[in-house]
Amino acid sequence: MSAIQEIETTVMALPARERADLAARILSSLPPVLEDDDEGIAEALRRESEAEQYPEVCMTLNQFTSGIAKLRER
Questions:
Q1: 19: CB partners within 8 A, 6+ apart
Q2: Which residues contact 51 (CB under 8 A, 6 or more apart)?
Q3: What's the pTM?
């Protein structure tokens, strides 16, 4: 049995609360999945600026939800 399998067996025997606490500690030790050196923020700012400059190309929330509803009807 590999070390990972042994650890999994041991962990799965713990009460749910202890497994949840351990899982939270393990997850917090990992780097963020979507870490991209703020390129996401740069993109959001670019889109916000574009929306302010060209509001006619923007979609309202009502237009968006209506479009989604129409797609679901298909």
A1: 11, 12
A2: 57, 58
A3: 0.43
Separation of alpha carbons 36 and 44, rounded Å: 13
Write the pLDDT tens digit of every residue in 13-41.
999 999 999 999 999 998 877 666 677 78
The pLDDT confidence band at residue 43, using thresholds 50, 70 and 90, is: confident
- Local structure of 43: helix, strand or coil: helix
Which are the contacts of 34, defined by CB distance < 8 A and separation ≥ 6? 40
Residue 67 amino acid letter: G
Cα dihedral sign, 43-47-69-62:
positive
Distance separating alpha carbons of residues 20 and 9, to the nearest angstrom:
15
Domain map of the chain by residue range? 1-32, 39-73
Cβ atoms within 10 A of the Cβ of 11, count? Answer: 13
